[in-house]
Write a structure and sequence with these properties.
By secondary structure, the chain is an alpha+beta fold. It has one domain (10-166). The protein is built from 1 helix and 10 strands. The strands form 2 sheets. Strands 4-5-6-3-2-8 form a 6-stranded antiparallel sheet, with helices on one face. Strands 1-9-10-7 form a 4-stranded mixed sheet, with helices on one face. The longest helix is centred in the N-terminal third of the chain and has 55 residues, at 10-64. The radius of gyration is 26 Å and the shape is elongated. The relative contact order is 0.17.
Amino acid sequence: MKQSNKAISPVISDLLLLVTIIVITSIAWILGMPYIERLTELRNFEESKQVLLLIDNGIREIATDIGSAKEINLNLGEAKRIDVNALSDEIRMEMESFSGFIAEDTRFKENNLFYERNGTRLVIGLDYNGSGIDLNSSVSLSKGLKRLELIDANHSGGRAVINLRVR
């Protein structure tokens, strides 16, 4: 019998297999990364929202119980920072958002909780303007384990004045 020279050599077949695997992996990566980034941003948003709701519940509890105090233990993950602004009576967390799970130029408010997105900047926070609660301290909390102390300073004119201190 005569041997045919038309068979594919093992080197070329291995090379074709490798190129096929690389192409399939690249396509999966390109299609999957936006989805993964969106899920990551959504998880960070939900974690931030839960931290703020924990603070809000503590502030509301203190505001209704004259002369009381409360400590809240917080675990702020990577890239999380909370800023309390006594002048605007707001507590804010900012993060970057590229995935668009919240549409651009959106502002939403429910009770004291709000979020807004301008460009890639997403802000989630608590707004106590007009709520009968005054924040009396400006503080910042950065990543890691933090203890936030809430102290009812006084009630004057029907408004609760809350001091916040980081321990």
